[in-house]
Write a structure and sequence with these properties.
Layout lengths: L1 H17 L13 E3 L12 E4 L10 E3 L3 E10 L8 E7 L1 H11 L2 E2 L5 E2 L3 E4 L5 E9 H4 L6 E9 L5 E2 L5 E7 H5 L2
Parallel strand pairs: 1-11, 2-12, 6-10
Antiparallel strand pairs: 1-4, 3-4, 4-9, 5-8, 5-10, 7-9, 10-12
Amino acid sequence: MRKILFATLSVFLLALASCSKGDGDLDYGLMKIYMPQAMANGGIGNVYNVPSGGGTDTYNFSEEADSYDVYLGVMRSGKEAGEAFSVSIVTDEAETAKQAEALGAAVMPQEVYTLPSTVKVDAGNNSAIFHLTLKKAALDAYAGSRLVLCVALADPSAYELSDNGTVTTVLVDVDALRSI
């Protein structure tokens, strides 16, 4: 009986000692860079519909006098605050053509949009927002169309790109966007 009691007490003390206060606050996790919008459909696909819904709280863009600014972002996973980093923003022409065919849409012409070339994330932060700016005057020529553009991340200054979620297929329904 003494051996059983001693063994049970030993296991209990060992378990108690291994759980120190604050384990949930320790820095952990892989630090990879990705685009949250590429995961908008639960990670099943990377299609980011613009506009995204029927109410003002579900819009994923803002309207300016002569343009629409589609919200996109860069995020670094992991819990640690981390150092500052930057990442290049590029378009993937081959993927855009492939997605346009698959989605029954047209490739978004270069005269319709502007993108920043780089996005910077400050030290202590894990994300930053940038915009795909769509020019209203240029969109007028594409009434009745759905336009596709694959926006991708490249060349991070720190950390690594994630294996998934680094390309977002932006699918713009021109008529739905203009009617809001």
